[in-house]
């Protein structure tokens, strides 16, 4: 939304660094929390956006990330062992941002994603799991980073994603579930990566996201009438950006970061958002 | 009800040095912890530092995860303590049963159970676990982690008689209560087609017939059910069966009203009374059938896609126009 200076840079950097877990060589979600791959990715993304990557002990972080990959190719989130394609995406994204993708066993990683592909063309959190829009996004984005979008049946998946749009205009995450603003990010980002954003009704989903705003206190909720939160606000704004909503900066749907930044880093992939409207 | 004293007030904890969270840190977005939670986690950090693994640690970690079921470090440390103390993992499972129902949507609850089952290595425990999962799903029929956990359990222990054999009846019961449960349909695909051949299901032609009959029946009951149509497509795709073999079944669903019939065709159940017709998914299926047949059938596919684009599924207009364009291009000499 072009208000990067709303949060003080030094304070943000200091907070991120205070989440460093010296034992593990990575970041936890909060000071004194054990390192986790999700918070490690977030830390890297924030440091990059604040132009403070020099504060990072890159070799240690890379070691931490790689240590989480299992034999099957999937990644666990931490030493606890929970596995999920979301963590696989965090690992691939983080390594890519650090310019360390060459350290990754790509075939092993892609092989796992391939096994998560379901009969409906979608992807789940692990082998055998139900197709879910959030998992579709992490798998699609990870494949995009690894230049392996050939693993996807673009037409079938594109159709499955388009079918997430309900009569209200909002998007759901699986058949017969309720629409939710956060799916605006996962579904629209996935469609954008597959260059099929035109397959949904942009006007209707835009209207749905906007109707989920709290016009008195600000922010966006999961659906109209509910209480807003930071999570749904971020994903609502992300969705609107991809839909060409005027006044917003371009979002890179692969990395979920500012498009201009990713482009400057030489990491831009061949995705397509809707043209930015002027009014 | 008396409030329990803080750990800092309990004499039996006086030997532990509590460690506060924000040492030398000016937090940017500090979490507004309750005094109870702060106290408990201060003591947790204290025992982690000294690597204590004792019964009181089990008490403390239980307290923390009740306050914050997502505290993955507390879960992890609890598990390690259970193993170190050689505690009864079965007792732990029973303790967690009540817990899980309350905190269903938390990943860690299910992950902890998975660790316990893995350590127990008992098919009987796994069978009891299937019953527990079934109860948990009563409360939240589409819980993603619960279904995923069930699949893991079945595949990991892989016992036909004690575990796999009950799946079909159980899943069918769920679909009877809610034919639109996508998770249940997905699970059916998993145990019929995606996890080896079930005992008794060796005749794959018979299985195909059985699954098609089942799916058609459910479509007749509630035609506008994406899960059933996705399942149908999945089965046909998996077995390499042409869509055209289902045309007699699908056609009535593309009409604008339910045709009155005198003779019931069990192989081709018609839409139930009151069904909203034409069924959009049936039109989509029909168009795909024409496209699959190719040649002279392409214009019929185009006609059907035009109906969808302009009348019955205008939300996805651009998608249907893409299908038309692709098919016409492909059929050009």
UniProtKB/TrEMBL annotation, chain A:
It is an enzyme of class 2 (transferase). InterPro entries: PGGT1B-like (IPR045089), Prenyltrans (IPR001330), Ptb1 (IPR026873), Terpenoid_cyclase/PrenylTrfase (IPR008930). Residues 5-257 form the Prenyltransferase alpha-alpha toroid domain. SUPFAM superfamilies: Terpenoid cyclases/Protein prenyltransferases (SSF48239). Binds 1 zinc ion per subunit. It catalyses: geranylgeranyl diphosphate + L-cysteinyl-[protein] = S-geranylgeranyl-L-cysteinyl-[protein] + diphosphate. Gene3D superfamilies: 1.50.10.20. GO terms for biological process: protein localization to membrane. It comes from the Eukaryota. Its cofactor is Zn(2+). GO terms for cellular component: Rab-protein geranylgeranyltransferase complex. Keywords: Metal-binding, Prenyltransferase, Repeat, Transferase, Zinc. Its EC number is 2.5.1.60. One of its GO terms (molecular function) is Rab geranylgeranyltransferase activity. Belongs to the protein prenyltransferase subunit beta family. PANTHER family: GERANYLGERANYL TRANSFERASE TYPE BETA SUBUNIT (PTHR11774), GERANYLGERANYL TRANSFERASE TYPE-2 SUBUNIT BETA (PTHR11774:SF11). Catalyzes the transfer of a geranylgeranyl moiety from geranylgeranyl diphosphate to both cysteines of proteins with the C-terminal sequence -XXCC, -XCXC and -CCXX. Heterodimer of an alpha and a beta subunit. This is Geranylgeranyl transferase type-2 subunit beta.
Automatic annotation (TrEMBL), chain B:
PROSITE patterns: PFTA. Keywords: Magnesium, Prenyltransferase, Repeat, Transferase. It holds the Pfam family PPTA. The keyword Kinase does not apply. Gene3D superfamilies: Protein prenylyltransferase. GO terms for molecular function: CAAX-protein geranylgeranyltransferase activity; protein farnesyltransferase activity. The keyword Transferase applies. InterPro entries: Prenyl_trans_a. It is an enzyme of class 2 (transferase). One of its GO terms (cellular component) is protein farnesyltransferase complex. Its EC number is 2.5.1.58, 2.5.1.59. Belongs to the protein prenyltransferase subunit alpha family. This is Protein farnesyltransferase/geranylgeranyltransferase type-1 subunit alpha. The lineage of its organism: Eukaryota, Fungi, Dikarya, Basidiomycota, Agaricomycotina.
């Amino acid at each position: 939304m072009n208000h990067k200076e709303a949060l003080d840079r030094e304070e943000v950097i200091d907070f991120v660094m205070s989440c460093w877990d010296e034992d593990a060589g990575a970041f936890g979600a909060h000071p004194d929390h054990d390192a986790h791959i999700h918070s490690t990715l977030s830390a890297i993304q924030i440091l990059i956006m604040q132009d403070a990557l020099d504060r990072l002990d890159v070799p240690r972080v890379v070691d931490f990330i790689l240590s989480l990959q299992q034999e099957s190719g999937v990644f666990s989130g931490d030493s606890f062992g929970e596995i999920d394609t979301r963590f696989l995406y965090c690992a691939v994204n983080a390594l890519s941002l650090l310019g360390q993708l060459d350290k990754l066993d790509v075939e092993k990683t892609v092989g796992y994603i391939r096994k998560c592909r379901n009969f409906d063309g979608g992807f789940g959190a692990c082998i055998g799991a139900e197709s879910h829009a959030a998992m579709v996004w992490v798998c699609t984005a990870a494949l995009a980073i690894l230049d392996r979008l050939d693993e996807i049946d673009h037409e079938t998946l594109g159709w499955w994603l388009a079918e997430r749009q309900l009569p209200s205009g909002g998007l759901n995450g699986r058949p017969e579930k309720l629409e939710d603003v956060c799916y605006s990010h996962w579904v629209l980002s996935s469609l954008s990566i597959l260059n099929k954003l035109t397959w949904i009704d942009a006007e209707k989903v835009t209207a749905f996201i906007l109707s989920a705003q709290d016009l008195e206190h600000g922010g966006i909720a999961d659906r109209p009438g509910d209480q807003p939160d930071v999570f749904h606000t971020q994903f609502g704004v992300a969705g609107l950006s991809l839909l060409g909503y005027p006044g917003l900066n371009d979002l890179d749907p692969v990395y979920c970061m500012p498009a201009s930044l990713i482009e400057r880093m030489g990491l831009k992939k061949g995705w397509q958002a809707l043209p930015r409207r002027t009014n | 009800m008396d409030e329990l004293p803080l750990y800092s007030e309990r004499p039996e904890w006086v030997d532990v040095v509590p460690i506060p969270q924000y040492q030398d840190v000016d937090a940017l977005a500090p979490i507004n912890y309750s005094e109870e939670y702060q106290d408990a986690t201060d003591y947790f950090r204290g025992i982690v530092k000294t690597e204590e693994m004792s019964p009181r640690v089990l008490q403390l970690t239980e307290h923390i995860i009740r306050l914050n079921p997502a505290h993955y470090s507390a879960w992890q440390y609890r598990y390690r303590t259970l193993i170190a103390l050689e505690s009864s993992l079965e007792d732990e499972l029973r303790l967690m049963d009540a817990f899980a129902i309350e905190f269903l949507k938390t990943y860690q609850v299910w992950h902890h159970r998975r660790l316990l089952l893995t350590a127990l290595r008992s098919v009987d425990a796994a069978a009891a676990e299937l019953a527990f999962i079934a109860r948990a799903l009563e409360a939240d029929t589409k819980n993603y982690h619960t279904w995923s956990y069930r699949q893991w359990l079945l595949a990991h222990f892989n016992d036909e008689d004690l575990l796999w054999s009950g799946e079909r009846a159980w899943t069918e019961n769920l679909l009877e209560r809610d034919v639109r449960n996508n998770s249940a349909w997905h699970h059916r695909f998993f145990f019929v087609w995606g996890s080896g051949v079930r005992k008794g299901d060796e005749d794959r032609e018979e299985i195909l017939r059985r699954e098609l009959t089942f799916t058609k029946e459910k479509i007749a009951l509630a035609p506008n059910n994406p899960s059933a149509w996705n399942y149908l497509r999945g089965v046909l795709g998996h077995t390499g069966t042409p869509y055209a073999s289902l045309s007699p079944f699908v056609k009535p669903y593309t009409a604008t009203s339910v045709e009155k019939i005198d003779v019931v065709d069990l192989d081709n159940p018609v839409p139930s009374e009151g069904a909203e017709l034409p069924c959009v998914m049936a039109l989509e299926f029909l168009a795909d059938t024409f496209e699959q047949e190719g040649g002279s059938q392409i214009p019929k596919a185009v006609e059907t896609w035009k109906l969808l684009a302009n009348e019955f599924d205008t939300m996805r207009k651009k998608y249907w126009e893409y299908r038309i364009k692709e098919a016409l291009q492909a059929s050009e000499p």
